[in-house]
Write a structure and sequence with these properties.
Helix content is 35%, strand content 17%. By secondary structure, it is α+β, with helices and mostly antiparallel strands. It folds into three domains: 115 residues, no CATH class; 54 residues, no CATH class; 197 residues, no CATH class. The strands form four sheets. A five-stranded mixed sheet has the order 6-10-11-12-8. A four-stranded mixed sheet has the order 7-9-14-13. Strands 3-5-4 form a three-stranded antiparallel sheet.
């Protein structure tokens, strides 16, 4: 019986499975030996791998894929792979080629293609829904996301979509799909009064900014820049939960040499849709969570798209439109009662930032008395030059 330990496979779930199911004290591939049990048989591993593969892959012979015996059978260019190729080159089971070949031999030498070869896998259908939504609202229809936008989408639909092989959503359906998916997996994070939020504003040398009006979001008249969540004319409060993240986040779009770091404190409780709580994508081999895998794979790609680095080359007026529409939907269309988002700051080691649906007049100086009809969100606690 040939055995393999957790260190010889790449997948995290398989590593955990081997560690928990270990039945012998030596690995035949890396020759590790332990005081306790560290390895399982290759045949046992192959059963887990095969079961996982069948979630997203299928036998090529079941699909109308060209087969030319004179040219060697199926072609990789058609998305068809032999068992050994799939395990080694596509699924990256292990860096050890002997182990990959041994598992392939246990499973059997056959040809595989993705189950979505005809039509679309759920992940691909959701991704195409988002890509088509983004294209249409950027370049075709922006303000009437109803029947007209759906007719435009239908004109763009491929043969496989029109004939029922893929569950691709129309633009008018997309936000409902997104709300359903996000609310299944994301948490609503509540921030209590007193929570600090940092916001930096860069400005010209010699300017001395010290008031909440100056350091909060711009007024509606001055909100001329298009941001990832808010279009021109719609101010929102962008900030971070630590000053280092806030400064690093703004470096890419910094237009002035000096700045002022403002520390605000929440005056009211806010409820935020927290994109940092998105669970990791389950392993292909974790078949108990197979339904979550395509949804989370799509949501991770979606979050990556809408939370990417800011742009100031002029393209933001077009590129940010999809995320602005999604934000507006969650602000006004979804019945979630949210006050903004928490999102991961790009390239900042997991640190997070936030956008609050808060306008300029809702940011006040410390100790300021306001009219009863005004409901302030944030109070300026301090401001320092940076």
């Amino acid at each position: 019986m040939t055995c393999v330990c957790a260190d010889c496979v790449n997948d995290k779930y398989l590593k955990q499975y081997i560690a928990q199911s270990a039945e012998v004290d030596k690995c035949d591939y890396c020759e590790s030996a332990g005081a306790g049990l560290i390895a399982i048989s290759v045949s046992r591993l192959a059963k887990v791998v095969s079961k996982g593969m069948m979630e997203e892959w299928d036998y090529a012979e079941r699909y109308p894929i060209p087969y030319d015996s004179e040219e060697g059978g199926y072609s990789k260019s058609d998305g068809v792979f032999q068992t050994s190729e799939l395990i080694d080159d596509i699924l990256y089971l292990s860096i050890n080629p002997d182990l990959c070949m041994a598992v392939a031999c246990e499973i059997g030498d056959t040809f595989w293609c993705q189950k979505g070869y005809v039509g679309l896998l759920p992940k691909a259908a959701m991704r195409l829904s988002w890509e088509r939504f983004s294209y249409i609202v950027r370049h075709k229809v922006r303000y009437f996301l109803g029947d007209y936008a759906d007719r435009v989408a239908d004109e763009m639909a491929s043969y496989s979509e029109k004939f029922g092989f893929g569950d691709v959503k129309t633009p008018s359906e997309f936000n409902f799909l997104l709300e359903d998916q996000l609310t299944q997996y994301l948490k609503l994070t509540v921030l209590e009064p007193g929570t600090q939020v940092f916001r930096v504003r860069f400005h010209k040398p010699g300017e001395h900014l010290r008031s909440a009006i100056e350091l909060g979001p711009p007024s509606t008249e001055k909100a001329r820049k298009s941001n990832r969540m808010s279009p021109s004319g719609v101010p929102m409060f962008y900030g971070s939960f630590d000053p280092e993240t806030e400064i690093a986040k703004k470096k890419e779009t910094r237009e002035c040499p000096v700045g002022t770091m403002a520390t605000f404190r929440l005056l009211r409780q806010v409820q935020l849709l927290d994109f940092t709580t998105l669970p990791a994508i389950p392993s292909l081999y974790d078949t108990d969570r197979s339904k979550d895998r395509p949804r989370l794979a799509f949501l991770h790609s979606f979050v990556h798209d809408i939370m990417g680095p800011n742009s100031r080359d002029g393209s933001q007026h077009i590129e940010y439109v999809p995320s602005q529409i999604v934000t507006e939907y969650f602000r006004y269309g979804a019945d979630l009662g949210i006050d903004g988002f928490i999102y991961p700051s790009p390239n900042l080691n997991g640190n997070s930032s936030c956008v609050l649906f808060c306008e300029n007049h809702a940011c006040i100086d410390k100790g300021t008395m306001v009219e009863s009809y005004i409901q302030p969100w944030l109070e300026l606690d301090s401001a320092i030059d940076v």
